Amino acid sequence: MDYTRQEMMAIATGREFSDGELAIFGVGLSMLAGFWAQKNHAPNLIAFTEGGVFGSTPVGGLPWGIEDNRISANATSFTNAIDALGCLVASGRVDNAVIGAAQIDKFGNVNTTGIWSGETPWSAGRYVLPKVRLNGSGGANEISVGAKKYVIMVTHEKKRFADKVDYISSPGYLNGGNDREKHNFVGGGPAAIVTTLGILRPDPVTKEFILDSYFPFSSIEEIKENTGWDLKISPDVKVVPEPTELELANLREIDVTGSLRKK
Known about the structure:
The structure is a single chain. The protein is built from 8 helices and 14 strands. It is of the alpha/beta class and about 260 residues long. The chain has a single domain, classed as Glutaconate Coenzyme A-transferase (3-Layer(aba) Sandwich). The strands form 4 sheets. Strands 2-1-5-10-11-12-13-14 form an 8-stranded mixed β-sheet, sandwiched between helices. The radius of gyration is 18 Å and the shape is globular.
């Protein structure tokens, strides 16, 4: 069957959503995954953006921003980021979400702030400018702290999968175990890391992410080679089912312009 890695990633992420959930996701692949789930198997999924556009579905293709006409034309209501992130997300009402990552570690901590190339931001006893400045957390920090669960989408490359992130923009399980509980986070933490090669899930005790499944075009060896820590493999590791014809058709009806149909 003819599908791209991006499409496989979006469908695998969308399968993490259930009918009736209240969910938040941003533009791009995360929105494609969420609205595909709504069309494919979760018709009662309620979606909103961090800008406060609530209860809408894309019109004429995926939007380029979280408030443009393609996502706001048929919204149930409009509010703002304070209500969306400060009230709905921070209060623990959101069931599921998707965030991205520039760098991620084995406990699901996400860095979208900067790359310090082996240093820390405070290596010299004072703040050191990053070698590469990134976009920042946007609403991902609030989601990582407040959502009941969420999925992290990231390209599977060794430079992104670090044993320890340079900076925690959005906390996962911090140092593992029950570390989140010590900080009284409302949310439950990341449920899965969906990559361009497969799916990682947290160990129920240590919270270290292990390989749960891999895509038909990938392999365990390829995934280990592209991970910056000694990735553990689930004893029940399996191949992720390929997209069905109906799943692909539904996905391409959401991404009608083909803007995310990359090889």
